[in-house]
Design a protein that fits this description.
The chain is built from eight helices and seven strands; from the N terminus they run βαααβαβαβαβββαα. By secondary structure, it is α/β, with parallel strands linked by helices. The chain has a seven-stranded mixed β-sheet with strand order 4-3-2-1-5-6-7. Strand 2, helix 4 and strand 3 form a beta-alpha-beta unit. The model has no long low-confidence stretch (mean pLDDT 93).
């Protein structure tokens, strides 16, 4: 099973679209791995450099409407081949969110107030994220920066949990049918 959590990449912007996640000119690539060097290549955020800021990151925390724009599986694929299995935002474009789960990735939604607090508290620090899935059906993310830590609960539907446990739609279908 994928290891969820790790060092956080903060992208302080709303409406990051699928063309910014993986530019359309690379959609003819033949494998997921071929997409790896182009993740967030066209994303414009002051001070962000995809070449130096992405390596080693495992979680993205961003604002609202992440994954808007064209529907394409390539966007979660590009995240996955870069080892980013979790994106946390106040909300996601509907199809992008489902594509994340179909690939066995976590698209965690937190309320805007929590996202604001996270950016104020953690964005300028080296931050790690732990995903905690309890046996009682409760879930939370725990952010840690030095001696500072804070947890935020999130919801995960049963079907989404099944997709995560089976590493996506193909694994789920193999297990069920």
């Amino acid at each position: 099973m994928k290891q969820f959590g790790g060092p956080v990449l903060f992208l302080d912007r709303s409406d990051i679209n699928t063309d910014e996640i993986i530019p359309a000119k690379y959609l003819t690539e033949n494998s997921k791995h071929d997409l790896k060097p182009y993740l967030l290549e066209d994303l414009k955020i002051q001070g962000f450099n995809p070449t130096t800021d992405i390596p080693g990151k495992k979680v993205i925390i961003t604002r609202e409407n992440f994954g808007c724009g064209s529907s394409r599986e390539h966007a979660p694929w590009a995240l996955e081949v870069n080892g980013i299995y979790v994106v946390i935002a106040s909300n996601f474009a509907r199809i992008f969110r489902q594509n994340m789960y179909n690939c066995g990735l976590l698209a965690i939604e937190l309320d805007k107030k929590s996202i604001e607090e996270i950016f104020r508290t953690f964005a300028n620090k080296d931050t790690d994220c732990k995903i905690i899935i309890n046996d009682d059906g409760t879930y939370k993310i725990k952010l840690i920066a030095g001696s500072l830590s804070k947890s935020y609960p999130f919801r995960l539907g049963e079907f989404e949990k099944n997709l995560i446990e089976t590493e996506g739609w193909v694994g789920f279908a193999d297990a069920k049918y």
